[in-house]
Write a structure and sequence with these properties.
Elements: H1 3-19, H2 24-39, H3 44-56, H4 63-76, H5 79-91, H6 97-113, H7 116-126, H8 128-133, H9 138-149, H10 159-168, H11 172-178, H12 180-200, H13 219-241, H14 247-264, H15 270-303, H16 306-315, H17 321-336, H18 341-358, H19 363-379, H20 385-391, H21 400-406, H22 408-423
Length: 435
């Protein structure tokens, strides 16, 4: 069996298994194992398992469940709710203030946990009913929630960046530093869009959004609402960028800091802890099975000279180096319509990163482009995961098509930022140490 036929059979079998409902991890591992047995014999399985073991014992991988646990704890405490109330009092008098507060909260939550699912659920529960009650334009309100809640991909400590760094062999600290400016550009672009839309069409948002029925925001309550999130962000990012701890140790400190604040607020209960740990276990279980399954697939495919086949396919296509990068981004965007980011990074990055290096581009810059592409993928129909997260908590009357109709302007902003970073790499490689 030639490598071209092997590639075609592997691809068709993988998508066929997924089409009949087999989860990605089991589909990838099962198809790869079966083809490996047929093509190489039983001796291929220990080689594939060695790859799985190497990923399982990677110390940096422990940061993933810790950040997921931190996000689960924050989701069930009132830290985010109090922060929202405080910022609403500060920015509430501005037209479209609740939408602006929602985007600011999204940036803060992203900097605290790096998980998009929890952010969207939190914002959908807290901010969406408030905006609808105040007669905000429904499409803009929904778009702000899903786009803002997806910022966890771009703002450190992003789980997407951690997995990309582990799979691609790229420094996670450098990835975190490189995404700061593009992430802020993306967030500020969302804010500018809301301000401009509300200025051009005042009917989309009321001039004042303060809740007269809400509790008064005294200086003491303001302090209590703002200090915990800011301290958590400073603790996590300060330890990482200051070189005090590794990513994993910073994640552990973030979990401990979150638990301390929950205890001080009198919110720690057995139920809260149980639900947070259960959600973390489920999320990590899915992530690990996908990781192990795709690791087996990549190992078997590389053994069949698949990496060299893809390299020659892309490098010998007669495309310029920049057009080759554009083709890779197009593959990300197409896969993002049908597949979760975990599968995309595990399937493509081990193959694409050597090509990026051979073309002479920075893998850190490519990692930033990948994260922006995943921002677009989170919102892309028909399987954009952000829409399904919001659907789980959306008020009655809001369906999946309503959400997809709302994301168009925000996807256009994401695409514009992707092109901006593509043609202006210094936006990502702004520090000399990142080159």
């Amino acid at each position: 069996m030639t490598v071209a036929i092997f590639s075609a059979v592997l691809l068709v079998a993988l998508f066929a298994a997924m089409a009949i409902g087999v989860p990605l991890g089991f589909a990838a591992g099962g198809v790869a194992s079966l083809l490996g047995l047929i093509h190489f014999g039983p001796e291929v399985l220990p080689l594939a398992m060695e790859k799985v073991y190497g990923m399982a014992v990677n110390y940096s991988f422990a940061a993933v469940p810790l950040f997921i646990l931190m996000s689960s704890l924050l989701e069930r405490s009132t830290i985010a709710q109090d922060l929202y109330d405080a910022l609403q009092q500060i920015v509430g008098s501005v037209r479209g203030g609740v939408a602006l507060v929602t985007l600011i909260i999204a940036v803060v939550l992203a900097a605290m946990s790096g998980i998009i699912g929890g952010e969207i659920v939190m914002l959908g529960l807290v901010a969406l009913p408030q905006m609808l009650r105040l007669n905000y334009g429904r499409n803009m309100a929904i778009g702000v929630i899903v786009a803002g809640g997806s910022l966890g991909t771009m703002i450190p400590p992003s789980i997407v960046m951690i997995i990309f760094g582990l799979v691609g062999g790229v420094s996670i600290q450098k990835l975190f530093a490189a995404t700061v400016i593009p992430g802020l550009i993306l967030a500020l672009s969302y804010i500018a869009y809301v301000v401009i839309r509300c200025w051009l069409n005042p009917s989309l948002a009321p001039a004042k959004a303060a809740d007269p029925d809400g509790p008064a925001m005294t200086p003491g309550r303001l302090f209590k609402s703002l200090v915990p999130p800011l301290l958590l962000i400073t603790l996590i990012l300060g330890c990482i960028y200051g070189g005090v701890t590794s990513i994993t140790e910073a994640a552990c400190m973030g979990v401990v800091g979150t638990l301390i604040f929950i205890v001080l607020r009198g919110e720690l209960t057995a139920s809260l802890l149980h639900q947070s740990l259960t959600q973390t276990l489920r999320s990590v279980g899915v992530l690990l099975w996908v990781t192990f399954g795709v690791a087996v697939l990549i190992s078997v495919y590389n053994l069949a000279d698949g990496r060299e086949f893809v390299n020659s396919l892309l490098l010998d296509a007669g495309l310029s180096p920049m057009m080759t990068i554009v083709l890779m981004l197009a593959i990300f965007l197409v896969l993002g319509c049908f597949m979760d980011w975990i599968g995309i990074v595990l399937l493509t990055i081990p193959i694409f990163i050597p090509i990026v290096n051979e073309l002479g581009y920075s893998p850190v810059w490519f990692g930033v482009l990948f994260c922006i592409a995943m921002q677009i993928a989170f919102l892309s129909p028909p399987f954009g995961s952000a829409a399904f997260y919001l659907m789980s908590v959306a008020p009655k009357g809001i369906g999946l098509m309503d959400i997809y109709k709302s994301v168009g302007p925000f996807m256009a902003i994401q695409l514009a930022v992707l092109l901006l970073v593509l043609f202006l790499p210094d936006l990502a490689l702004w520090l000399p140490s990142l080159n």
